[in-house]
Design brief:
The protein is of the alpha/beta class and 273 residues long. It is 40% helix and 14% strand. It has an eight-stranded parallel β-barrel with strand order 1-2-3-4-5-6-7-8, surrounded by five helices. Strand 1, helix 1 and strand 2 form a beta-alpha-beta unit. Helix 3 runs parallel beside helix 4, helix 5 runs parallel beside helix 6 and helix 6 runs parallel beside helix 7.
C-alpha cells in the first residue's frame, strides 16, 4: 500500500512545485487533477504529457489516478454532454501521463452541488439514468484502454456498497472498478454499526477495489469532509480490511489543508504499519 495525496492540496504556481511539496512530505503517489493544475486535457500535446509524466517520475511519485469526476446525471443535459467530452479527453491522455485509472462518481439530481443529496436519487428513473450514463462512460474507457473507478457515496445515486455491487454486476465491464472511501458509507444512524458497514463493503467489493481514499467524518448521513485522524472513522479497522484483501495500490489523502498533511499522514502511516 502506497500513501499518496490529491496533488492540489499543495497549491503552488506550477505542477512541478506542487510535486516538490508532495515529495518533501514523504508521499509517493498522487491523484492528479488536471483542472486544478490549470490544464485542459483536450489541449495537451504529447510534449505536455511527457513533461507531466517526467515530472512525476523524477520525484518518484506515482500518478495513481486522474480526477475525472463530474455530475453524470446532471439535470442540465448540456453539462452532461460536456462532461462526457471532457472525460474522453482525459482518457485520451491518461496513458501518456502515466496512469490507467480515472475517478468518477454516480451523480446526484441536485442541480447545484455534485456532493449534495437529492431525494430523487432514490428513484428508479435516477438509477436507470445513471446506469445509462455509466455505460456511456465505460464505452469511452474501453475505447481508450483505461479503467473508471467510481465511489460509493451517501449523497450520490450509488450510496452504499450493496448498490455498488449491483452496478458492477449490471454493467459487467473490467473497465469499471471501485475507489473505496471508508468515510463515505454511513447513512444516518449507522455509525454505531461502523465495523459491520465496513466489513460488508469489503465483502461485496473486495475484488473490484483499485484505489482507496483516506479522509474522515464527524457524523453519519453525509460524506466525510475531515482530515484523516481528526474524526470518527475506525482507521485501524479500515486499513486492516485493505490489508486483508491484499490491496497494494495507492491510499490517497484528501479533504485536508496543507498544514494538516504532516499530522494526518503520520496518523495513517502508523496504522498502515
Amino acid at each position: 500500500m502506497k500513501l499518496g495525496i490529491f496533488h492540489k492540496v499543495f497549491e503552488r504556481p506550477t505542477l512541478e512545485q506542487s510535486l516538490d511539496a508532495v515529495s518533501a512530505a514523504g508521499l509517493v503517489a498522487v491523484q492528479l487533477d488536471l483542472t486544478a493544475a490549470g490544464m485542459d486535457p483536450a489541449k495537451l500535446s504529447d510534449e505536455d504529457c511527457d513533461r507531466i509524466r517526467t515530472a512525476h517520475q523524477e520525484r518518484g511519485i506515482e500518478v495513481a489516478a486522474l480526477s475525472g469526476t463530474f455530475n453524470i446525471i446532471d439535470p442540465d443535459r448540456e453539462a452532461r454532454r460536456l462532461g462526457m467530452e471532457w472525460l474522453d479527453a482525459l482518457a485520451a491522455v491518461s496513458g501518456k501521463i502515466g496512469t490507467g485509472l480515472i475517478t468518477t462518481c454516480t451523480g446526484t439530481r441536485d442541480p447545484d452541488s455534485l456532493w449534495s443529496f437529492h431525494p430523487d436519487n432514490h428513484t428508479p428513473e435516477a438509477w436507470a439514468d445513471m446506469v445509462a450514463a455509466i455505460e456511456q462512460a465505460v464505452q469511452i474507457a474501453e475505447a481508450r484502454g483505461v479503467t473508471l473507478v467510481f465511489e460509493p457515496e451517501v449523497n450520490n445515486v450509488v450510496d452504499s456498497a450493496q448498490k455498488a455491487r449491483r452496478l458492477l454486476d449490471q454493467v459487467a465491464s473490467d473497465h469499471l472498478q471501485v475507489v473505496i472511501d471508508g468515510a463515505n458509507l454511513f447513512h444516518a444512524g449507522e455509525l454505531p454499526r461502523m465495523r459491520e458497514v465496513l466489513d460488508e463493503a469489503f465483502d461485496l467489493l473486495a475484488d473490484s477495489i483499485r484505489l482507496a481514499h483516506a479522509k474522515d467524518l464527524e457524523q453519519d448521513g453525509d460524506a466525510g469532509h475531515q482530515a484523516a485522524g481528526t474524526g470518527l472513522l475506525d482507521y485501524d479497522h479500515y486499513l486492516a480490511l485493505l490489508r486483508q484483501i491484499g490491496f497494494d495500490g495507492a491510499l490517497i489523502l484528501h479533504s485536508l489543508e496543507e498544514g494538516q498533511v504532516e499530522s494526518s499522514s503520520a496518523f495513517v502511516r502508523e496504522r498502515m504499519r
